[in-house]
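ugh ok fine here u go
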Amino acid sequence: MCLAIPAKITSIDEKADTASVTLDGVSKQVSLALVDGAEIGDFVLVHVGYALNRISPEEAERTLQLIAEAGESAEDAA
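structure:
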């Protein structure tokens, strides 16, 4: 199973077709080769160094909340 994480684009390098994205204060460079029209401030789903597609801020927030809840459930089970 694969997991893509929502992250916010903070800068774009158009020549390299990459973006800097951030999640919880952690920044990472990702490829934008699979996403057309990405802009600074957009949320994208990131998997193994690639932005897969853009998503709404609301969808990003819902997804991050579900991931956090799943982590809390796993800690409770341990």
